[in-house]
Amino acid sequence: MVRVSIRTLGAFGVRLGNRSVPASAWTQRRASDLVKILALADGHRAHRDRVIDALWPDLAPEAGAANLHKAAHYARKALGSADAVVLRESHLALWPTASVEVDSGVFQAAAEAAGKSGGAELRSGARHPLIWSGLLHYNFESHPVRLRNISSTGAMIECGSPLRVGTEPMLALGQEIQLSATVAWVAGDTAGLRFTKAFDLTLLASARPEVAAARWDRPSYLQPGAAADSPWDEQWDRMSLGELRQSLEGFMKR
Q: Is the dihedral of CA 225, 229, 230, 234 positive or negative?
């Protein structure tokens, strides 16, 4: 049996056994979107009409169906198998003859276990790469956040503004996704959110939130060229202990 591993948290990717499907194989974006939707759907299968509505909401049914067949064709081509996307009785299935594992499903299982044990497993479990950026709305203010993980029941975020357990914010991912939540736990600038209602993960494929920046930007006070009397100026890193003492003593005598 073929073992298929799909990464949806972070950069999209598929592994077939020990072989990674190259990014160049995905010549049609809707082909990869179709695989994402099926990967995130329960049992890795979804009704064809629901998939069409998610990917081509503005098209007539006939045009949407034609696009779906085209996307399925290119998905099979990218994955190298006619069994990769199968249409049966108005439902699309992702590789029904293979063993399919999706990273978000692993996190969802951890989140559900955390719900039964107060969140300890979630906090100590494996972390996934940063994926999307969003906004957290609460107390009549909006704060930028980074989404670390997401499941149907909750999410883990990074937020530069302080959060308190029990706060009930709204998480916005792009223009289309607004999620009411409760802050379940806080650890530094990382927090766990518990959604008020179950979230349909397949919406992420069509919403396409903004990808979070991968690098950390230095704040202004850590940039080169800080004022000479700034505690962050590079001169303090180059001084010996004696030189530092003399400089501080001179400052105290001013």
A: positive
